[in-house]
Protein backbone atom coordinates (compact mmCIF):
# COMPACT_ATOMS: atom_id res chain seq x y z
CA UNK A 1 0.00 0.00 0.00
CA UNK A 2 1.32 3.42 -0.93
CA UNK A 3 1.33 6.04 1.80
CA UNK A 4 -0.98 8.79 0.54
CA UNK A 5 -0.32 11.41 3.17
CA UNK A 6 1.97 14.37 2.62
CA UNK A 7 4.95 14.79 4.93
CA UNK A 8 3.67 18.17 6.02
CA UNK A 9 1.30 20.92 5.06
CA UNK A 10 2.44 24.52 5.26
CA UNK A 11 -0.14 27.16 6.16
CA UNK A 12 1.09 30.58 5.06
CA UNK A 13 -1.28 32.68 7.14
CA UNK A 14 -0.08 36.09 5.91
CA UNK A 15 2.35 37.93 3.65
CA UNK A 16 2.84 40.61 6.30
CA UNK A 17 6.26 40.51 7.94
CA UNK A 18 8.50 42.55 10.22
CA UNK A 19 11.69 41.49 8.40
CA UNK A 20 13.08 41.43 4.87
CA UNK A 21 14.96 38.13 4.76
CA UNK A 22 17.07 37.57 1.68
CA UNK A 23 15.68 34.06 1.21
CA UNK A 24 11.99 34.91 1.55
CA UNK A 25 9.61 33.80 -1.20
CA UNK A 26 6.72 36.02 -0.06
CA UNK A 27 6.18 38.96 -2.41
CA UNK A 28 6.33 42.58 -1.28
CA UNK A 29 3.56 45.11 -2.05
CA UNK A 30 4.10 45.31 -5.81
CA UNK A 31 3.76 41.55 -6.23
CA UNK A 32 7.37 41.24 -7.35
CA UNK A 33 9.68 38.88 -5.52
CA UNK A 34 12.31 40.37 -3.23
CA UNK A 35 15.83 39.63 -4.44
CA UNK A 36 18.75 40.01 -2.05
CA UNK A 37 20.82 42.27 -4.33
CA UNK A 38 17.99 44.67 -5.15
CA UNK A 39 16.94 47.64 -3.09
CA UNK A 40 14.79 46.47 -0.20
CA UNK A 41 11.08 47.08 -0.61
CA UNK A 42 9.13 47.08 2.68
CA UNK A 43 6.29 44.60 2.84
CA UNK A 44 2.82 45.94 3.46
CA UNK A 45 1.76 46.39 7.06
CA UNK A 46 -1.93 45.89 6.43
CA UNK A 47 -3.85 42.72 5.77
CA UNK A 48 -4.62 42.33 2.09
CA UNK A 49 -6.09 39.28 0.43
CA UNK A 50 -5.63 37.16 3.54
CA UNK A 51 -7.96 34.32 4.33
CA UNK A 52 -10.31 35.12 7.21
CA UNK A 53 -10.25 33.25 10.51
CA UNK A 54 -13.35 31.33 9.42
CA UNK A 55 -11.62 30.47 6.14
CA UNK A 56 -8.54 29.09 7.92
CA UNK A 57 -10.70 27.05 10.32
CA UNK A 58 -12.44 25.53 7.31
CA UNK A 59 -9.06 24.70 5.70
CA UNK A 60 -7.97 23.03 8.95
CA UNK A 61 -11.18 20.95 8.96
CA UNK A 62 -10.35 19.79 5.42
CA UNK A 63 -6.80 18.91 6.47
CA UNK A 64 -8.24 16.83 9.32
CA UNK A 65 -10.47 14.94 6.87
CA UNK A 66 -7.47 14.26 4.63
CA UNK A 67 -5.43 13.20 7.66
CA UNK A 68 -8.13 10.70 8.68
CA UNK A 69 -8.45 9.30 5.15
CA UNK A 70 -4.68 8.73 5.02
CA UNK A 71 -4.55 6.91 8.39
CA UNK A 72 -1.95 9.07 10.00
CA UNK A 73 -0.97 12.29 11.60
CA UNK A 74 0.60 14.78 9.25
CA UNK A 75 2.59 17.79 10.37
CA UNK A 76 1.31 21.32 9.91
CA UNK A 77 3.84 24.13 9.64
CA UNK A 78 2.32 27.52 10.47
CA UNK A 79 4.22 30.28 8.71
CA UNK A 80 3.85 33.42 6.63
CA UNK A 81 5.17 36.19 6.29
CA UNK A 82 5.17 36.45 10.04
CA UNK A 83 2.26 34.52 11.60
CA UNK A 84 2.64 36.41 14.90
CA UNK A 85 1.24 39.47 13.11
CA UNK A 86 -2.17 37.77 12.90
CA UNK A 87 -4.40 38.73 15.82
CA UNK A 88 -6.34 35.47 15.38
CA UNK A 89 -3.30 33.16 15.59
CA UNK A 90 -4.37 31.76 18.95
CA UNK A 91 -7.83 30.89 17.60
CA UNK A 92 -6.24 29.11 14.61
CA UNK A 93 -3.82 27.23 16.90
CA UNK A 94 -6.64 26.24 19.23
CA UNK A 95 -8.59 24.77 16.30
CA UNK A 96 -5.56 22.83 15.03
CA UNK A 97 -5.00 21.44 18.55
CA UNK A 98 -8.68 20.58 18.95
CA UNK A 99 -8.42 18.57 15.72
CA UNK A 100 -5.43 16.72 17.24
CA UNK A 101 -3.14 17.67 14.37
CA UNK A 102 0.60 17.91 15.07
CA UNK A 103 1.93 21.38 14.33
CA UNK A 104 4.73 23.87 14.78
CA UNK A 105 5.08 27.62 14.41
CA UNK A 106 7.80 28.99 12.15
CA UNK A 107 8.60 32.57 13.14
CA UNK A 108 11.23 35.29 13.33
CA UNK A 109 9.77 36.03 16.79
CA UNK A 110 8.91 39.66 16.08
CA UNK A 111 6.66 40.88 17.60
CA UNK A 112 6.30 38.75 20.73
CA UNK A 113 5.88 39.27 24.45
CA UNK A 114 5.78 36.99 27.47
CA UNK A 115 1.99 37.31 27.56
CA UNK A 116 1.73 36.30 23.90
CA UNK A 117 3.97 33.27 24.49
CA UNK A 118 1.72 32.16 27.34
CA UNK A 119 -1.37 32.72 25.18
CA UNK A 120 0.11 30.69 22.31
CA UNK A 121 1.00 27.86 24.69
CA UNK A 122 -2.46 27.97 26.31
CA UNK A 123 -3.98 27.59 22.84
CA UNK A 124 -2.03 24.44 22.01
CA UNK A 125 1.34 25.52 20.64
CA UNK A 126 3.99 22.98 21.58
CA UNK A 127 6.75 23.50 19.02
CA UNK A 128 8.16 26.80 17.81
CA UNK A 129 11.05 27.26 15.37
CA UNK A 130 12.74 30.62 15.32
CA UNK A 131 14.79 31.54 12.26
CA UNK A 132 17.96 33.21 13.42
CA UNK A 133 18.90 34.24 9.90
CA UNK A 134 15.89 36.54 9.70
CA UNK A 135 17.30 39.00 12.18
CA UNK A 136 18.90 42.21 11.06
CA UNK A 137 22.10 41.57 13.01
CA UNK A 138 22.60 38.35 11.04
CA UNK A 139 22.39 39.87 7.57
CA UNK A 140 25.94 38.75 6.77
CA UNK A 141 25.81 34.95 6.92
CA UNK A 142 29.58 34.65 6.55
CA UNK A 143 29.80 35.90 10.14
CA UNK A 144 26.83 33.90 11.44
CA UNK A 145 28.71 32.16 14.28
CA UNK A 146 30.47 35.37 15.33
CA UNK A 147 27.23 37.38 15.29
CA UNK A 148 25.35 34.80 17.36
CA UNK A 149 28.18 34.60 19.91
CA UNK A 150 28.31 38.41 20.13
CA UNK A 151 24.55 38.66 20.68
CA UNK A 152 24.60 35.93 23.33
CA UNK A 153 27.55 37.54 25.14
CA UNK A 154 25.65 40.86 25.33
CA UNK A 155 22.88 39.26 27.37
TrEMBL record:
Chain ranges of the Radical SAM core domain: 12-134
GO molecular function: catalytic activity; iron-sulfur cluster binding; metal ion binding
CDD domains associated with the record: Radical_SAM
InterPro entries in alphabetical order: Aldolase_TIM, Radical_SAM_PqqE_MftC-like, rSAM, rSAM_sf
UniProt-listed SUPFAM superfamilies: Radical SAM enzymes
Record keywords: Iron, Iron-sulfur, Metal-binding, S-adenosyl-L-methionine
UniProt key word Cell inner membrane: no
Name of the protein: Radical SAM core domain-containing protein
Amino acid sequence: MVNCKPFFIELELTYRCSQQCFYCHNPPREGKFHLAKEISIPRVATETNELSTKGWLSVIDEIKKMDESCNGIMDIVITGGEPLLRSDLEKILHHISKQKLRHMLLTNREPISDDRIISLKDNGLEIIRINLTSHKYLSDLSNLDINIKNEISKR
